[in-house]
Amino acid sequence: MPAVSKGDGMRGLAVFISDIRNCKSKEAEIKRINKELANIRSKFKGDKALDGYSKKKYVCKLLFIFLLGHDIDFGHMEAVNLLSSNKYTEKQIGYLFISVLVNSNSELIRLINNAIKNDLSSRNPTFMCLALHCIANVGSREMAEAFAGEIPRILVAGDTMDSVKQSAALCLLRLYKTSPDLVLMGEWTSRVVHLLNDQHMGVVTAAISLITCLSQKNPDEFKTCVSLAVSRLSRIVSSASTDLQDYTYYFVPAPWLSCKLLRLLQCYPPPEDGAVKGRLVECLETILNKAQEPPKSKKVQHSNAKNAILFEAISLIIHYDSEPNLLVRACNQLGQFLQHRETNLRYLALESMCTLASSEFSHEAVKTHIETVINALKTERDVSVRQRAADLLYAMCDRSNAKQIVAEMLSYLETADYSIREEMVLKVAILAEKYAVDYSWYVDTILNLIRIAGDYVSEEVWYRVIQIVINRDDVQGYAAKTVFEALQAPACHENMVKVGGYILGEFGNLIAGDPRSSPLVQFNLLHSKFHLCSVPTRALLLSAYIKFINLFPETKSTIQEVLRSDSQIRNSDVELQQRAVEYLKLSSIASTDVLATVLEEMPPFPERESSILAKLKKKKGPGAVSVNELEEGKREGGELNGGGGERGGDNSTIAASNASTPSPSADLLGLRTGPQVSAAPPSAGSLLVDVFSEAGVNDDGFLRDLEPPTESSDSLLAEGPGDSDSAPPSAVSEDAAPPLPESNELLNKFVCKNNGVLFENQLLQIGIKSEYRQNLGRMYLFYGNKTSVQFVTFTTTVSCPGELHPQLNVQAKPVEPLIEGGAQVQQVINIECLGDFCEAPLLNIKFRYGGALQNLSLKLPVTINKFFQPTEMASHDFFQRWKQLSQPQQEAQKIFKASHAMDTEVIKAKLLGLGMALLENVDPNPENFVCAGVIQTKAQQVGSLLRLEPNAQAQMYRLTLRSSKDTVSKRLCELLAEQF
Amino acid sequence: MMRFLLLFSRQGKLRLQKWFTVLSDRDKRKIIRDLTQMVLSRPPKACNFLPWRDLKIVYRRYASLYFCCGLEQDDNELLTLDILHRYVELLDQYFGNVCELDIIFNFEKAYFILDEFVIGGEVQETSKASVAKSIEEAESLQEVRQ
């Protein structure tokens, strides 16, 4: 019978678990749990000292309750007590409880660490392993601080037992992953590498995980592991299946170790030493050969282990991408798997072939499997396998097979799972464009896409087809004819109407010769769809109509009548109404020449990388695209929109729309570029629009809390306000006073907010309200006289000292020279950021109060972060971008003590106030915060990424900034370190 | 490395949860909910692997219990099936003809055995005999309660 019968079974626990299992309802369960919790609590609080067994039993019950999903808020101390028990099972339960329920109680952490320390130095291998498992399970920074120095020593010491070495290696790996800065290599590097030679296979298996991780981070220091790994691999591969005794798994010698060795080698380029390389190639060939041998066992474990090694070897071959012979053999092997009866192998073969398809050596070999892959797409029962097949078809596509693949993907799309449709659509659109030999095929394909899966055709896709049609005059007639035919369908997707409206508006004349598609027929066809469409599409159609008037004067009266109808000219949607009114006027007043000029054919679009590609990369995540490329795509979207502005018929708006609509979601056809477009894009938020309009801000309520209490004037004179930091009135020179000592602190207050009280003394209160957009800012200063006596000759000057001058352009509007007692005046300051900066502009204020000159200087809270534009990005993009900014000077880091309570919501609010986008679900550790943004200066844009790692136990933060410009990282880091 | 290992029954009852990275309770609950739903709704004989977020999910059913784990992109799926199988073998060796009830009533043992086999999401010892020996040695240290 099993070891459970040995007598350590806890009867009370078993009874409790039975009770819980017998509960008929959630309520009954909760009741039973509460009863048990009360019982345990009273036992823990009772006067009678509990023996170790009872303590163990109760702690174990608490653990069970916690694992059921209930909160546990006591018992930690009892668990910690168990750690110092000398009975193994008690200690074990204590450690398990700590591992599962570790909390941030710093007092306990100290006790836990003490217990661990004792066990580590106990020289009892079983206790040492328990302690190491606990460190690895918790893996917190405190643990790293306490033990990162000790564990390497245990790992390489000559007298350490093998089982302890194994635990130590993986424990160290865990600490290295959480706190790489605390795990210092160096002196023990070479001894760790030599663990690859250890006699004990288990030690090698554990150590190699550590070595692989370290090699990824420090390839040079660990490169001696390559030859060791190759010789170890070679010994395993050439050993008979019985040589390795217990490390043989279902007749496969050491599959775990083999895979890990092959994985380690993927951290490095092919070995330079010819002999080593030869040996490795031999190994890889042997592995490929073994795949052809008959299986030694029918068990699935045997084939899994054997194929695990084979796939890992193929990964290495693909990684090297330099041995044509091996690549082709790998491809053939995968080809066999494509038809294997095991679904798992088909799935992995499809996945692996995707990477092979991008190698020049094996691309052709991969292509030979096209029929099998198409068949997989059609017949696989498992959606995840079909998805892999679609990925592979995409990867193997080239000019020679594009038509076949696109056709297959299109037909699959009709029945494809909803979850993958959008991605499929993007892929088809990209392939169609990339491999289009004749563009009529391209147009057909995209129109088919819209027909089959219109809902999944994103804006990028239909923008792109229009872009291409505009740019290529050989396809324009065909496109017009095809959309005309497609629009005949009684129910066609709105995206089809958009494409149709645009193309007929531009090129309808090319098919107007045919009486079946005469101008009026075209118009009536389009207009029959009008009422079923959304506002943006209707706006687009109105633009098409005015283009028709230019192209076909004979349609003028019909169209004018449509425009003149109440449903247009009095449409409740302002955009539609405006278009109707303007187009009507334009068509009736403008001469033919003017009409022809304004409504001329669209100019060609600049050739760029397809924005669809960028979108696909973004969707796919792993597939790699830099943020730069994405932004490229966005800019392109913006230009499309700007170009489309000409359709609006009002030339004066074009410049404005070009300059001010960088939004990627803006539409191709300039639907929002009617004359009402101001400099502010609609997305900028109404508040900003107000601020930047001439009306300015007159927020009455704003200074309500700044109103001076009238009684306060009594005490004023005695205090001699302002005198504290400037000389007595008579001695005050006309020079500006130096900034107040506290002005840096005041500045820090406004890093994460834009409004509030900047300064206050007994006389004066200065309120501030500011708004920023792109590289521009506007600040309102409110000077409140707290006394009952007027301030005279009130003057303010704003200056940019020293290096700040060329970076920041600050203009202050003059302010009223007289402030009555109890009154306030407002001053407007315009700010333009020309380049990145560190200092803050100075505000000097002088006035006479009761004859005495007051002179004070403050720093205006204009900091570089005010010019942030938030940037949303996915996890993958974030870390890719993070890695790109890896030069040491691009990073600034600070570790500092929390000066405020570490409240998540407060931290979030501050980070949002900073102006960057707070990215959720990006950092693998949910406690951490990451942000991204672009600082807009006139000279350049500086992309910045931020990571803030709070450590609640230590009440510390680690803040890391990475920017494309070193001064920016440094400055942001300085500013932010004061905020938390 | 393996990010987590979950054991749940056909009814979706969680029997064991092991997390190899730090996650908030909320995230853990979400992962558990999403994965039990996803895995339980898959047809029989479907592939044992599926992509999920940035992870590869590998799962396998043993009798009434599903063993399911999340892997990083460069982990080997087939080898992970072997890890799951070896874990089942270790449980079987310890309990003797292991069944779901053994894991319910001796959940702490299931955690201990896992700790002997996998640390921090990496395999530390693949030899069945070695793991058994560690457990044996440890058990011999305990005092038998009368």
Report on this structure.
Chain A: It is a peripheral membrane protein. Chain A: Residues 651-666 have a biased composition (Low complexity). Chain A: It is found in: Cell membrane; Membrane, Coated pit. The complex is a heterodimer of chains A (980) and B (146). With 980 residues, chain A is of the alpha+beta class. Helices cover 53% and strands 11% of the residues of chain A. In chain A, helix 4 (76-83) packs parallel to helix 6 (106-120) and helix 30 (556-564) packs antiparallel against helix 32. The longest helix of chain A is centred in the first third of the chain and has 21 residues, at 300-320. Chain A starts with 10 loop residues before the first helix and ends with a helix. Chain B is built from five helices and seven strands. A five-stranded antiparallel sheet of chain B has the order 2-1-5-4-3, with helices on both faces. Chain B has helices spanning 25-40, 77-95, 100-105, 107-117, 128-141, and strands at 2-9, 14-19, 49-52, 55-62, 65-71, 118-119, 122-123. With 146 residues, chain B is of the alpha+beta class. Chain B is globular and about 45 Å long. The interface between A and B is large, with 83 and 67 residues.
Low-confidence stretches of chain A: 1-7, 622-733
Strand content of chain B: 25-35%
Instruction: Give the structural class of chain B.
Output: alpha+beta
Overall mean pLDDT of chain B: 90
Q: Main sheet of chain A, how many strands, which sense, barrel?
A: 6 strands, antiparallel
Query: What helical percentage do the residues of chain B reach?
Result: 40-55%
Number of helices of chain A: 42
Please estimate the helix content of chain A.
Answer: 40-55%
Biggest β-sheet description of chain B: 5 strands, antiparallel
Instruction: Trace the largest sheet of chain B across and list its strands.
Output: 2-1-5-4-3
Uncertain runs of chain B with pLDDT below 50, 5 residues or more?
none
